[in-house]
Amino acid sequence: MAIIRKKKTLDGIDRDILRRLKETQRQLTSRQIAIDVGLSGASIMPRLNNLKNKGIIKDECNAFRNFERKFGNKTKKVRSCSRRVWKIDLK
Q: How many Å apart are CA 80 and CA 5, to the nearest integer?
């Protein structure tokens, strides 16, 4: 279940996230961003997704994990992102 932020405007924490991404000039994981701005991983994700939906930042997956899931009586191979990195979208 995805957590949706009610406020769609940028606040001080969102500006801190953008400032941190701009200062480092490299890709950061969600956990690194959360530690830098003083939030937990669960509370940083809605903010990052909001900034992504606005087109301000973008994410990339640079590590994948493969596993099998059962759907009814069928087994299906699933590929999922295990490490997502964020950077400012400078288009």
A: 24
Nearest to 20 by CA among 9, 7, 31, 6: 31
pTM to 2 decimal places = 0.73
| Pair 29, 83: CB distance under 8 Å | yes
Asked if residue 57 lies in contact with residue 21, where contact means CB atoms within 8 angstroms, the answer is yes
Q: Residue 83: its pLDDT value, please?
A: 85
pLDDT of residue 5: 57
Give the CATH number of domain 12-88; options: 1.10.10.10, 3.40.190.150, 1.10.1240.10, 2.140.10.10. 1.10.10.10
- As a whole number of angstroms, the distance between CA 21 and CA 5 comes to 21
Q: Is 73 helix (H, G, I), strand (E, B) or coil?
A: coil
Structure tokens, 58: 């973008």
